Amino acid sequence: MDLAYLFRPLRFAFANVMLLACADAVLAQSVTPRQILIGQNITLQGGKNAYGVAVMDGIDTYLKEANAKGGVNGRQVVVKTLDDENNSNRAEANARTLIEQDKVFLLFGSIEGGPSTAVMKVSNELQVPFFGPMAGSPTLRRPYQPLVFPVRAEHREEFRVLLEYLRSTGGKRVAFFRADSEVGLLHLENFKKICQELGLELVLDLHFKSDISDAQLAAMAGRIAAADLQGVINHGSSGLYEKLIRQVRALGSPTPFLAVNSGSTQLARQLGPLAHGLLFAQVVPSPWERRTELAREYQEAFRRHKPGIDFSYGSLEGYMTAKALVAALRLAGPNPTRESFVQGLHKAGGLDINGLRPIYLNGDHAGLKLVDLAIYTRDNRFRH
After folding, report:
1. Are 51 and 283 in contact (CB under 8 A)?
2. Within the chain, which residues score under 50 in pLDDT?
3. Which of 120, 133, 257, 266 could make a disulfide contact with 50, Cβ separation 3.0–4.6 Å?
């Protein structure tokens, strides 16, 4: 008689008990009577990534405000941050370190599509929620990711708003500047679908590797100048987009450029007068105007904690995402677990962030749908 067969159910039961004990041990380290430890991987590149630095300024501002008021159920929200240097492999390694060594409660707040997707991979593998990735990658929503909770809208919604604008102004011929990557191909698929729906012609698919040379960019610029386009739209990579715009303008071409939100404040500042007339999709309200409750609250807090630093879309997005994180943590209850964190969001159906309502339903973690248009004017301001 196979006695091992008789003891197999006991082995499985013991294994489950051990898994639960391990999970409880992790939570005992990440959730104490005084703090909740959150893990963050983000692209800072040692401070050279201006957009990432701005996002961190916004996150730091909100968490200082929240913690000064008692945090979450008396616990301070503490964030351990690692820099992925805009490298997906490093982002994946950082996420593993944060979970396995630092024993964080959940993962939070990366930027850039590639690194965010890498963090999501670890989140799924180790079954740890990933809240507030500040990237527009379609991989974060489709197929449905039960442990991933974006706050901002995705690039697909930005493409639609930009392309609808072009159509409304008589545009028919467009180009798409995107990364030559798996995520870039997904963006291209969405871009093509929207063009077909709107009756627009995608004339040029301008795909690039991260090590693209100035000569290759110059060749792209020549194609744009010769193509009779009514618009060029990008997918991220504001640094390369800046170089491309400069190359096209150097050829004397008036081809209109439009851009997604990523690094828009920094892109406009770097381009200077060449940015005048650029149209941007934005996934947060104007950080300079006081038309929204969120912007007014952000401005007052940012002046207190970051005197001398200008407002920006990046810091407002960081502030908004940190505020959403704290609201989500409160929904997890007085003795939060990862399971209660997810259940709390599903039970509430989402969050209310100063009237903005990211949606989190079982089967649909859409986040926000907010996409606004802003033009960069001759007085060096974004006008919504």
Report:
1. no
2. 1-21
3. 266
C-alpha torsion sign, points 41, 29, 124, 323: negative
Residue 267 and residue 313 in contact, taking contact as beta carbons nearer than 8 Å:
no
**How much is the pLDDT for 26?**
59
d(CA 355, CA 349): 14
User: What's the confidence (pLDDT) of residue 265?
Assistant: 86
The arrangement of strands across the sheet holding 372-376 comes to 201-208, 173-179, 231-234, 257-259, 279-282, 372-376, 382-383
Tens digits of residue pLDDT in 2-54: 444 334 434 433 444 444 345 555 576 799 999 999 999 999 999 888 889 99
Q: How far is CA 296 from CA 47, 207, 218, 293, 320, in A?
A: 27, 39, 43, 5, 12
Sign of CA dihedral 308, 152, 255, 207: positive
d(CA 278, CA 296): 26
Q: Report the Cα 132 to chain-centroid distance in Å.
A: 7
Which SS3 state, helix, strand or coil, does residue 192 take?
helix
Q: Quick check: 141 and 366 in contact, CB under 8 A?
A: yes
Question: What are the residues whose beta carbons fall under 8 Å from the beta carbon of 352, sequence distance 6 or more?
Answer: 327
What is the 8-class DSSP label of residue 309? Answer: P
Amino acid at 134: M
Q: How far apart are CA 344 and CA 65, in angstroms?
A: 23
**Nearest alpha-carbon partner for 43 in 107, 104, 96, 94:** 94
DSSP conformation letters of 112-156? SHHHHHHHHHHHHHHT--EE--B---GGGTSS--TTEE--SPPHH
Here the tokens at position 207 are 């795909």
The span from the CA of 41 to the CA of 116, in Å, is 8
Instruction: Give the separation between CA 226 and CA 25, rounded to whole angstroms.
Output: 63
